[in-house]
């Protein structure tokens, strides 16, 4: 079986062909321009490759509700050209194969649970900290959808008094993404995040905000593992700082084996930045199986 996989991002599209074992057989990248430019190019690549099914992990918000009339539509994105665009339907009709969509971060969570370090677990949180902050969440083996899909990047956190910057989220005064995304670090300090490695206050503030978000997710979702990905998490010095802050904020309240072994509980992504595209492959496999069962 040839599985078409698309990781649709706000700046670039990653396309791949995978097999049932999660092996990537071919791969292509293209910039995210307008739907009129980008979607026909993606369709022709998949047509040339020949696919039996399609899985899409997309930037959002995106309609992921199975059975919805607008399933696979991009909703109120700040990327105006893509707002209300029927991404999945357009691609599926052109390609004539079964297809399934989820949010980009739910896709990454699924990739880690299927092919990565979270294999065998059923309740997992995947957080990306990059241009934005997004959380993919699986509970009891199922990716969380509900009324939409989690938008946990916008939970409210407490701003530190020594923070020289401001929340940059246009919608909220003190949210996680507005205070801790890559662009918010860069606005606060006036430099690219990767140029700030030697300034300890940068990472102390950043780790504090990430820990605040994580404590809320730990206490509500009860994940068995927390995986942190995205560009900002390439700053590996953040991991011990975040773990220490989480323990400090929990303050002994939780004594689970996971929390007591925090180094193996809060971990970096394990799939070399392929977690999203591998999750899309798994979505493609599920689309194929679900079509065969109907
Ligand atoms: P996206 O979120 O757009 O998919 P990334 O996860 O790579 O892409 O996030 C990009 C953001 O991450 C940039 O805005 C930058 O602030 C930050 N970033 C990228 N690389 C690094 C790095 N090595 N160290 C710290 N921050 C980084
Ligand atoms: Zn916000």
Molecular structure report:
This protein has helices spanning 35-49, 87-95, 104-115, 176-180, 182-189, 200-221, 238-250, 257-260, 275-292, and strands at 3-8, 12-18, 24-31, 53-58, 99-103, 124-129, 133-139, 142-143, 225-229, 266-268. The strands form two sheets. The chain has a five-stranded mixed beta sheet. The chain has a five-stranded mixed beta sheet with strand order 8-7-6-9-10, sandwiched between helices. It folds into two domains: 3-103 and 273-292, ATPase, nucleotide binding domain (Nucleotidyltransferase, domain 5, 2-Layer Sandwich), CATH 3.30.420.40; 117-268, ATPase, nucleotide binding domain (Nucleotidyltransferase, domain 5, 2-Layer Sandwich). The chain has 294 residues and is α/β, with parallel strands linked by helices. The mean pLDDT is 97. The protein is 36% helix and 19% strand. Zinc ion (ZN) is lined by residues 154, 169, 171-172, 175, 177-178.
Key terms:
294 residues, alpha/beta, Nucleotidyltransferase, domain 5, 2 domains, five-stranded mixed beta sheet, 9 helices, globular, binds adenosine-5'-diphosphate, binds zinc ion
